[in-house]
Amino acid sequence: MKYKRILLKLSGEALMGQKQFGIDNNRLVQYAKEIKEISDSGVEIGIVIGGGNIFRGVQAELGGMERTQGDYMGMLATMINSMALQAALESVGVDTRLQSAIEMKQISEPFIKRRAVRHLEKGRIVIFGAGTGNPYFTTDSAASLRAIEIDADVILKGTRVDGIYTSDPEKDSSATKYDSLTFDQVYDMKLNVMDMTAFTLCRENNVPIIVFNMNESGNLNKVINGDKIGTLVA
User: Crossing angle for the helix pair 139-149 and 113-121, nearest 10 degrees?
Assistant: First the structure.
């Protein structure tokens, strides 16, 4: 086992599965089982999940809504996904805690670093909802921030593609994959790994990032064991 404590970043869109929007229960159960497998092996897991399958703050701005309002709506979307993932994890027998950056005491704990770390030490999976609690920050930024705060060994960014490519492999058939990159290379080539705020946080705090395909069964376990899956940025 290469990593003891991880921050798993999942996109909201990945939860759609075969649907056009919302949550695909089959995808949710698949994720829960994969996460349980690595939790059972002793890995301490924090999770941040996006909300793009339900709502994006950027969409609201395009429609004429104030960006701040849209971003808070997006944070609430991440809480819906977080609660769904929490329910799925608990249905397969995993002890979880949901912490929110915005106070919602009926459904979650407030984010408190010391409490989060204590949960991790006790083998509980901690899901961090509502982004950073601030507008103008993405869930990528939230993932970077929480990874640094809980002293995670690595950020695992689970996506629909199996790594970082020279261009979007879903649009460009000639795109080639990178096995590993430095932070400087990503900057110089303007590769779209995370938004720049999130990426800079990782670079300045020496938190490596692995981008991999979370939808392929078994990949999460392979990454944890140090197999050459996806693309490593370090």
Answer: 70
- Per-residue pLDDT tens over the stretch 177-205: 999 999 999 999 989 889 999 999 999 99
pTM of the model: 0.96
* C-alpha angle 215-230-159 in degrees, rounded to nearest 5: 35
Nearest Cα to Cα of residue 95 among 20, 133, 39: 39
Q: Give yes or no for a contact between 105 and 74, defined as CB atoms under 8 angstroms apart.
A: no
- Domain 5-233 matching CATH 3.40.1160.10: the answer reads yes
Q: Which residues contact 21 (CB under 8 A, 6 or more apart)?
A: 53, 54
Using an 8 Å Cβ cutoff, are 119 and 146 in contact?
no
Strand partners, 10: 49, 158
Our separate counts of H helices and E strands in the chain read: 8, 11
- 91, two tokens: 């249905």
Least confident range from 48-52, 116-120, 173-177: namely 173-177
In the block, tokens 């993405």 appear at 138
